[in-house]
Amino acid sequence: DPVPSGSGRSLWDQGMLGSFKMADPSAKKQPSIPETLRKKRAAAKARLAARAKAAPALRKRQVARRKEIFKRAEKYAKEYHQAERDLVNKHREARKAQNYYVPDQPRLAFVIRIRGINGVAPKVRKVLQLLRLRQIHNGVFVRLNKASMALLRLAEPYIAWGYPNLKTVKELIYKRGYGKVNGNRTALTENKIVQGTLGRRGIICVEDLIHEIYTVGDEFKWANNFLWPFKLSSPLGGFRKITNHFVEGGDCGNRELAINTLVRRMN
Predict the structure, then answer these.
(1) What is the pTM of this model?
(2) Chain-centre distance of CA 141, in angstroms?
(3) CA distance 238 to 114
């Protein structure tokens, strides 16, 4: 059929354009954002704004905490050095007076379980549980007093123990230190872990923890309970004879300062 001319053509064109406009998808109404999604986006935006606002104050607190930790570590280093110098001077003075200097009795011991579960008497098993030595090659720090010495004597055939020095305490905590955080064994990878659990006890960093353990301070009970029992390796070169006492050429019992050598072979 011929295309109508004149006004007919314009009406036809208008009709065709109208049909094209109705078929255009952009002309449809877009769906609105769900209310829950809108609230979620608004809350996330508010959180970001609050975090950005609090960032300078948080940064300031972190810098202040790092400075405080550094000051404490510096103070402890001077304290350890001074104690060592005092001990040397006292020995020299006693030697000059043709006498002997007897140092104080050690207050800290490190105890390692060296035998397994076969043939353990019920009382000894209970003592090992009280000392938190449930597995072979487990190690713990113990405050030495009358009660703890009685426990160590009962469990002596199954443990090796002695008096650790500062280097041993530091190496154990830095290399194999794990803390008890909400009942879980957590590696001490940052000072925040220590501060989160022991902050109210005045222990905010690993150096504080080492100082409290080594000096057997007022908060030793909480600091030692925070530390998970150390899981040591078999000693390099092996044991000599675990059924004999150390003074008889074996391995069990009190070996005093020789415990530091054993810990280095097991750490």
Answers:
(1) 0.77
(2) 16
(3) 11
- Collapsing DSSP states into helix, strand and coil, what is residue 113? strand
What is the DSSP secondary-structure string of 149-202? HHHHHHTGGGEEEE---HHHHHHHHHHH-EEEETTEEEE--SHHHHHHHHGGGT
Q: Beta-carbon neighbour count of residue 170 at 10 Å?
A: 17
Q: Which residues of the chain have pLDDT under 50?
A: 3, 5, 11-12, 20
String of DSSP letters for 26-95: GGSPPPPPPHHHHHHHHHHHHHHHHHHHHHHHHHHHHHHHHHHHHHHHHHHHHHHHHHHHHHHHHHHHHH
**What's the mean pLDDT when you consider all of the chain?**
89
- The closest alpha carbon to 142, from 175, 168, 107, belongs to 107
Contact criterion met (CB below 8 Å) for 186 and 193: yes
d(CA 58, CA 51): 9
Contact 207, 198 (CB under 8 A): no
The DSSP H or E segment spanning 143 is strand 138-143
């449930």: which residue's tokens?
134
Summarised one tens digit per residue, pLDDT across range 52-65 is: 888 888 788 888 88
